[in-house]
């Protein structure tokens, strides 16, 4: 899958201890993660990380938050003319990056994406995002966080809170 905008495609660097090691080390902005799906919900972040990192509203053009076949969560896929909304999480620790890498399966790849407009004072204009890499699973519709919150969030979060 090709991205309509320039970006950097890297695995998490060994310096942060990821199972996806081997990429070029990340320097400035290493703690900025663009989240667009289940990770934008405080209850999910709390279940995974034991806290809710600071999140700033953000968008990325040229991508969409796609529904995935048979899955309650979305995938971020390249889509010219589309814009994906989410949050830019900041202040993530190396341990939290490892937890998030473990949470995201191998069908996601971590990429640095340019963010739209000014995000906040001192915030980077790019952020890391887990992008979906299995095109056969992508549905034509966009994932709806309100539908997820109403129908799935409680069960999904309870499973994570129980350690599964």
Automatic annotation (TrEMBL):
It holds the Pfam family GGACT. Residues 33-144 form the Gamma-glutamylcyclotransferase AIG2-like domain. The keyword Transmembrane does not apply. InterPro entries: AIG2-like, AIG2-like_dom, GGCT-like, GGCT-like_sf. The keyword Ribosomal protein does not apply. Transmembrane segments: none annotated. GO terms for molecular function: transferase activity. Keywords: Transferase. It comes from the Bacteria. This is Putative gamma-glutamylcyclotransferase.
């Amino acid at each position: 899958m090709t991205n309509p905008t320039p970006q950097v495609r890297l695995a998490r660097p060994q310096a942060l201890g990821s199972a996806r090691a081997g990429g070029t080390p990340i320097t400035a902005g290493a703690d900025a993660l663009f989240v667009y799906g289940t990770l934008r919900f405080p209850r999910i972040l709390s279940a995974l990380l034991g806290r809710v990192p600071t999140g700033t509203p953000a968008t990325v053009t040229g991508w969409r938050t796609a529904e995935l076949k048979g899955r309650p969560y979305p995938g971020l896929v390249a889509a010219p003319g589309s814009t994906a909304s989410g949050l830019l999480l900041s202040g993530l620790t190396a341990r939290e990056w490892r937890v998030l890498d473990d949470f995201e399966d191998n069908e996601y790849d971590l990429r640095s994406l340019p963010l739209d407009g000014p995000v906040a004072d001192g915030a980077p204009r790019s952020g890391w995002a887990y992008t979906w890499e299995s095109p056969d699973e992508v549905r034509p519709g966009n994932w709806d966080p309100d539908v997820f919150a109403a129908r799935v969030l409680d069960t999904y979060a309870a499973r994570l809170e129980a350690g599964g």
